[in-house]
User: What shape does this take?
Amino acid sequence: MDIQRIAILIAWPGLGLFLVGLAIRWFVTRKPIRAIVSMIGGLVLVVSFACVMWFVSHMFDPVDGKPDSTVSRQGFQSLLSYPPPASITDLQYYSEGFTDHMVLIRFRCADASAIAKIIETLELKPMTEAKTEFPAPNVGWWKRDGTATFTVYGAEYQNLWRYLWVDEKNGVVFFEEASA
Assistant: This one.
């Protein structure tokens, strides 16, 4: 169950209970001005709570950049600390998570020096493809051509791994960074 649904499940019954309590208080004390002021204050609290819960529920939404969009270029730059070179086209970026995260990048590039710079920047080493299974997230553009042959580079740390799949024949590069 996501945070947005939890907020709704808490906010509406909370509002109902508050209004019932307010009505009882008004009938018992017979002080309508005090009851109305209390009701307004309570409504402000309930609405504020619902807004905070909505904000928190959307704060960690996945980021899915469209091809060659500003979001995709910024995602590339935030990961590698330099903007994508002009030789990189059809750049797509996806990230999700907060503590456990996943970043996916796919792009076209025929420039071996641009790919070498990525490998050097991320300190990746050649790996066997059998060791690095190609992930299958639910992202439409993250599709691997079944006939493609990849050269795989990677780095594995205690709770972080990075893989780069390079299809030199078709000029397509896939990158994954994930933590557990």
About this structure: Helices lie at 3-29, 32-59, 70-80, 112-121.
